[in-house]
Write a structure and sequence with these properties.
Layout lengths: L1 H21 L21 H18 L3 H15 L9 H14 L3 H9 L16 H17 L3 H20 L4 H24 L3 H19 L6 H23 L1
Helix pairs in contact: 1-8, 1-10, 2-3, 2-4, 3-4, 4-5, 4-6, 5-6, 6-7, 6-8, 7-8, 8-9, 8-10, 9-10
């Protein structure tokens, strides 16, 4: 019974957590590339790179991951020849890594995300553009390990990711940004629960789900932030509660 339960709950938590984190692009005020037209003075080279990034993002949203990979690779190559866009490289690397995951090229994804991490691959690279990018890279590295069946290897990456989301939130005075990071931290802990279950650590998984539920409840109940953020937190909260109910009944 326990083995069947773990096989059921793992894809539920993984899919829900992954979709929730990917949805942050729609609401998160992280340091993303600027949309065309929002900068008054851009060189033709900058405009060309930004156009490629937007094209790749559109391809990724429609599920054309292989095209997105080629587009983001082209964007990276051109971006690296434009000194003014050095600060955008990490965000494009993150997009490229996610496109690799979408195309089920897990090794390429892990290699790409490693460019945002330190030499030991369990902390942020010195000079990374944003701590949140590092947290995202650790999250997706953990996810890739889980997809490969390496659940034990995923655990430290997910724990580091949670810590870095917390670090990102604590470094901001914006309540909304803090809540977004708290939400991402909780969704990552839900993913961690799936990995813990698959390594036989049921009580630790239950503890993680309870903690995630508490954090998601905080975000969902905060009336100072966008309704879209609260709605996303509510969906993640419902998913975590369902997972907890299954875990405690089996």
């Amino acid at each position: 019974m326990r083995r069947a339960f773990c096989h059921f709950i793992f894809p539920v938590l993984v899919v829900c957590s992954l979709q929730a984190l990917e949805a942050q692009d729609q609401i998160s005020p992280k340091k993303t590339v600027t949309l065309p037209g929002f900068e008054t003075e851009m060189s033709p080279a900058q405009k060309a790179v930004r156009s490629l990034i937007q094209k790749g993002a559109s391809e990724e949203r429609t599920g054309d991951h292989n095209s997105a990979i080629r587009t983001f690779q082209d964007a990276l190559q051109k971006l690296r020849s434009v000194p003014e866009m050095k600060g955008d490289e990490d965000s494009v690397l993150l997009r490229l890594g996610r496109a690799y995951i979408g195309a089920h090229r897990l090794e390429d994804a892990v290699t790409t995300f490693s460019l945002l991490l330190g030499p030991s691959a369990d902390d942020c690279r010195s000079g990374v553009a944003a701590v949140e990018y590092c947290a995202d890279a650790q999250y997706y590295t953990g996810f890739a390990n889980m997809q490969k069946g390496n659940f034990g290897a995923a655990v430290p990456f997910l724990k580091k990711s949670m810590a870095n989301y917390a670090r990102a939130g604590s470094g901001s005075e914006s309540v909304e940004y803090q809540m977004i990071q708290l939400k991402q931290q909780a969704e990552t802990e839900s993913m961690l629960a799936a990995a813990l279950l698959r390594t036989g650590r049921k009580q630790d998984a239950i503890n993680s789900l309870n903690h995630a539920i508490s954090q998601l409840s905080t975000v969902e109940g905060n009336e100072e932030i966008q309704d879209a953020i609260r709605a996303s937190a509510r969906k993640s909260l419902q998913d975590a509660q369902k997972a907890l109910d299954l875990a405690t009944k089996n």
